[in-house]
Design goal:
This protein has 411 residues and is an alpha/beta fold. The chain has ten helices and 19 strands. Strands 15-14-13-16-17-19-18 form a seven-stranded mixed beta sheet, sandwiched between helices. The chain has a six-stranded mixed beta sheet with strand order 2-6-5-4-1-3. A four-stranded mixed beta sheet has the order 7-8-9-10.
Length: 411
């Protein structure tokens, strides 16, 4: 046994080995010899000997015995101190551009060759952060543009390298870089430069055209994650009245009308998104009633109507932004779903969603079942819904399942 190791069950004070100096990257050591599973390493799991590397640095990760275990992006001001990029060889990140090109190319092959997404849509997620081994980086293809959404200071500082790799995979397509406000606060930096504004472009999804503004509005400009759910839910719309609450750009509403709904109402409080939905309706020749109003108010009104919709879609914005908001957010989800269930005619359907990553699937389903009891409705769970497969998840990182939904038969 080496002199600086302490047998299990004993305690002793020891001086940790000095972090070795390398000619390439700064190094950060872990507080133990165990490399945590998953791509996130928190501050309490990191041990520093001297001055920390600059925030946003690409670093080598060492265990407590100062053995190399991987590469990561470092930020001392973030609760997520290290975002692990590689657990392989020390040479993996010798060229960050080559590493990014390899990783992005592998993600791109999955979308093109396996999922064959270009056959059905011009909008899909090329890289899904932790699910594609790029923790803190999202890349969406929206029509003839690419949008990089940076949730890590390290990737923001590498944005030129990311763009260079993307230009090799998608030559000629402009790249928009954006940082969500919540990410800027969590990572404690100001991106300063505004996103490149390409104006409005069209994307096509299963035959429907939608105008989008890449990098602006909600998320990257379009909800690629709901693509398959829009098709699945709308398949039940033929001949029935549909109420789409929080319609945003009209994805569920327009798909339902295209697949034969008798009447469709799309409701949203965001007038910019709703105006874009109206133009999408005209572009596709689909007649939808667009209502600029608070979804709660509309649900209360519909609850008292004699004729109720046979299909209600409830897809609110992120209600729970952090664990601190959890209790209050679950109350709001309960209120939303209680009202929505009260609005479905007997024998109808409710498709309800949560995009709050802090709310796991069992908790969300539990809230929905509580809402049914509160509304006095009997429900049967027909299907559990999630993000489209271009949003893959790592089994060891369940937080990546941020979108969850339920398709319910309501009696």
């Amino acid at each position: 046994m080496s002199a600086d190791r302490v047998p299990s069950g004993h305690s002793a004070t020891r001086t940790p080995p000095t972090i070795p100096v390398t000619e390439t990257l700064p190094a950060v050591a872990l507080a133990s010899d165990f490399l945590p599973t998953g791509p996130w390493i928190f501050g309490r799991q990191v041990e520093l000997d001297g001055a920390p590397p600059p925030d946003g640095s690409l670093v080598e990760v060492l265990d407590a015995s100062r053995r190399f275990v991987g590469h990561a992006l470092y930020n001392s001001r973030s609760d997520i101190r290290l975002r692990v990029l590689s657990r392989g060889k020390r040479t993996d990140l010798r060229s960050p551009r080559d590493f990014l090109l390899r990783t992005l190319a592998a993600a791109d092959r999955l979308r093109k060759r396996t999922l064959r997404l270009p056959e059905v849509t011009t909008a899909y997620r090329i890289a899904h952060a932790e699910g594609d081994d790029l923790p803190g980086l999202i890349v969406d293809k929206l029509g003839d543009a690419l949008v990089c959404e940076h949730h890590a200071l390290g990737f923001w500082r590498l944005r030129d390298v990311v763009e260079s790799a993307l230009n090799e995979l998608y030559p000629g397509l402009p790249v928009v870089h954006r940082v969500p406000d919540n990410a800027a606060r969590a990572e404690h930096f100001d991106p300063e430069e505004p996103p490149l504004d390409l104006g409005e472009i069209d994307l096509v999804e299963h035959g429907l055209a939608f105008p989008v503004r890449p990098g602006f509005g909600h998320k990257t400009g379009w909800f690629c994650d709901q693509r398959d759910n829009r098709m699945q839910v709308a398949a039940y719309a033929k001949g029935v009245d549909v109420l789409d609450i929080c319609t945003n750009a009209g994805g569920f509403a327009l798909r339902a009308k295209q697949l034969g709904a008798r009447r469709v109402r799309g409701v949203d409080l965001d007038e910019v998104a709703l105006e874009r939905a109206q133009r999408a309706g005209r572009k596709n020749g689909l007649d939808v009633e667009w209502i600029h109003a608070d979804g709660f108010d509309v649900l209360r009104s519909v609850r008292d109507d004699r004729e109720k919709p046979g299909l209600v879609v409830l897809d609110p914005h992120k209600v729970v932004r952090s664990r601190m908001d959890l209790e209050q957010g679950l109350v709001k989800y309960n209120d939303w779903n209680t009202l929505a269930l009260s609005c479905v005619k007997p024998g109808g359907l409710l498709a309800t969603f949560s995009c709050s990553g802090a709310v796991d699937l069992p908790t969300f389903l539990g809230v929905v079942f509580q809402s049914a009891r509160r509304a006095g409705r009997e429900i049967r769970l027909l299907d559990v819904l999630g993000a489209s497969p271009d949003h893959p998840q790592r089994p060891e990182f369940p937080r990546s399942r941020y979108l969850k939904g339920a398709l319910l038969a309501v009696d």
